[in-house]
Design a protein that fits this description.
Layout: E1 12-13, E2 28-29, H1 35-38, H2 41-54, E3 65-68, H3 72-85, E4 93-97, E5 107-109, H4 115-120, E6 126-130, E7 137-138, E8 141-153, E9 158-162, E10 166-169, H5 185-188, H6 192-195, E11 212-214, H7 215-224, H8 229-258, E12 267-268, E13 270-278, E14 284-290, E15 298-304, E16 307-312, H9 314-331, H10 333-346, H11 351-366, H12 371-394, H13 403-406, E17 422-426, H14 430-433, H15 438-449, H16 460-469, H17 479-495, H18 507-521, H19 527-554
Parallel strand pairs: 1-2, 2-12
Antiparallel strand pairs: 3-6, 4-5, 4-6, 7-8, 8-9, 8-10, 8-13, 9-17, 10-11, 13-14, 15-16
Helix pairs in contact: 8-15, 11-12, 15-18, 15-19, 16-17, 17-18, 18-19
Bound molecules: adenosine-5'-diphosphate (ADP).
């Protein structure tokens, strides 16, 4: 701990709540800039909505949600239409205040006209969401799953999932919501922080009983009942990857603002807590993502009335210690050095590269007076190795798992440590999911035209340059129309009061403008094809422009 600041640079910085130190120029920080903001209930719902607009089937693991107060009329209207078309539909909705946690301020309603809703939302923005009425029950109780996910890198995207998680149980037997039981939090909300106050709460000293259990113990039970646990895991992995794909565009905007490319800065990683609810049919549904999941491995016990003591919680310890330990193993700078050394020998299949590689290593180790020259050569070589190694990486057989698994543990300082509990899922399964990364490419365009480093919003000149460089304006779409589009969309997004610190067009507004342009240009296609086509069009024009500029430079 550095309560009064630090003087020496560190390899790993472990921040308590969020990324907050702009004076870090090297090493790795355990938080991404802007993560807290990105996973807030409203921002997450917006990001998921954008993906649901593009890929409705792929993103049906997130309950239908509306943002209040701005979408109250839409919420009322859509529910009315759905009820009219299906009179047997008797929905329940859950209202969650933005920025709330631990079940704070959450309540259930049966109808948009509920007085509680109309009364409270003006003072506190919230998300209202379709309530999942038929959750999977164990011992007649509702429970949710907390899974730990390591976002190891944003660019390139690297995601790991912990092989075990926690299951947090309600403390009253579950009944489908009725007007009579809507307010019974111990029946409907699985939050540990709420249920701990129930007299039915059971602190267990084993991982498969009590009000908090390991997820693996639930899987064992499901498996013994004949459930397809493999499919369930694969659905969960897919949910996690898709959710992170929805979050990365916003994260990249924050990242370039706090840690501009080309300047010295740290790299970031972060442990996220995914809250997932299993439906009766075993479909996993995302409830929320926590940027700062609790890593406590103790709980309070009342020894005698009013006297509390912290005692170890074996279930928390089982899951959380492994997550922290393996996160440190994966980001260990010594490991990176060892891995790099391993890669130098492993990857260059081409014999010429191998020969140059060996030469360069020996040279840079032995010939210290040629350090500068050797550094230049090794940088060049790394570039070649990168080009040479990429295709061969794809051919690493499935069974060898992650690169780290491939390094024999007993040779390094990890001898005696258990095998990694964090399993790499991306880029491992990248091929299946890369087609979903359209908004990521839109964000790359946005960042490119932001201009001055350190900003997160696009000014009118930046937007005009984007239109001009991508050749999007023509006789049907004048530069005056471009300005009107910019003003209309920017004004609306800024009036929602998300971020008043900077003026200009935020990423979500740019995404909306981009979708608008795509719809205009490629009328008859489905939205995701419209957006993909416009992206290709823009990227093509920008590549041509870059080539032309390079030509001028050389000339
Ligand atoms: P918080 O950050 O306050 O914990 P959550 O979104 O996690 O907010 O919701 C709290 C609890 O409410 C969840 O743990 C879950 O038990 C329940 N819950 C949340 N959303 C839904 C939903 N759409 N359907 C059913 N239960 C839900």
């Amino acid at each position: 701990q550095f309560p009064f600041g630090r003087r020496l640079p560190c390899d790993i910085y472990w921040h308590g709540v969020s990324f907050h130190d702009n004076n870090i120029f090297s090493g790795q920080v355990n938080k991404f800039p802007g993560m807290m903001e990105t996973v807030r209930k409203i921002t997450l719902s917006r990001a998921m909505r954008t993906m649901q607009d593009l890929f409705p089937l792929e993103y049906n693991f997130y309950p239908r949600s509306w943002i209040l107060p701005e979408e109250l009329p839409l919420f009322v209207a859509e529910v009315r239409v759905m009820k009219d078309s299906d009179p047997s539909w008797k929905p329940t909705f859950i209202v969650k205040p933005d920025g709330g946690c631990q079940g704070d301020g959450i309540y259930l309603i049966k109808d948009p006209s509920d007085i509680r809703l109309t009364g409270s939302i003006q003072s506190r923005p919230a998300v209202v969401q379709e309530y999942i009425c038929k959750p999977l029950l164990v011992d007649k109780l509702k429970f949710d799953i907390r899974l730990y996910v390591l976002l190891k890198s944003l660019e390139p995207l690297e995601i790991y999932i912990a092989k075990d998680g926690l299951s947090r149980f309600c403390t009253e037997p579950y009944q489908e919501p009725t007007l009579k039981n809507l307010h019974q939090v111990f029946m409907h909300l699985t939050n540990y922080s709420l249920n701990i106050h129930s007299e039915n709460f059971i602190h267990s000293d084993s991982v498969n009983t009590g009000s908090k259990r390991t997820f693996s113990s639930i899987l064992c039970r499901l498996s013994s009942r004949g459930a397809d646990v493999k499919k369930l895991w694969s659905d969960i992995i897919s949910l996690v990857i898709k959710t992170i794909i929805a979050l990365t565009p916003e994260l990249k905007v924050y990242y370039q603002s706090d840690i501009p490319a080309g300047k010295p800065g740290p790299t970031c990683f972060q442990i996220l807590g995914f809250d997932i609810l299993l439906m009766k049919n075993l479909k996993p549904m995302l409830l929320e993502v926590n940027a700062n999941p609790s890593m406590r491995i103790e709980h309070e016990q009342e020894l005698s009335p009013g006297v509390f003591e912290n005692v170890p919680s074996p279930v928390d310890e089982e899951v959380k210690v492994a997550v922290i330990r393996d996160t440190l193993r994966l980001v260990d700078p010594q490991k990176k050095k060892r891995k790099d050394a391993h890669n130098w020998i492993m990857f260059p299949r081409d014999s010429l590269l191998r020969a140059v590689g060996a030469f360069c290593i020996i040279w840079s180790m032995k010939d210290k007076q040629h350090k500068h020259h050797s550094l230049k050569l090794s940088l060049k070589l790394k570039f070649y190795l990168k080009l040479g190694s990429c295709p061969s990486l794809e051919h690493v057989p499935e069974s060898s798992g992650s690169l780290l698994d491939a390094v024999p543990a007993e040779r390094g300082p990890e001898a005696g440590l258990p095998s990694l509990c964090l399993k790499q899922v991306f880029p491992k399964y990248a091929k299946q999911f890369n087609y979903l990364r359209l908004v990521d490419r839109v964000a790359a365009l946005f960042i490119r035209f932001l201009g001055v480093k350190g900003t997160t919003k696009l000014g009118p000149t930046g937007f005009r340059t984007f239109i001009r460089n991508c050749k999007l304006s023509n006789s049907n779409f004048s530069m005056a129309a471009v300005d009107i589009l910019y003003i209309d969309i920017t004004r609306r997004w800024n009036s929602m009061g998300i971020d008043h610190k900077e003026s200009g067009m935020c990423l979500q507004a740019f995404v909306e403008a981009f979708f608008c342009l795509a719809q205009k240009k490629y009328k008859s296609l489905p939205l995701h094809e419209q957006v993909a086509s416009l992206l290709e069009f823009c990227e093509c024009h920008l590549a041509a422009l870059a080539e032309k500029r390079l030509g001028w430079g050389w000339g």
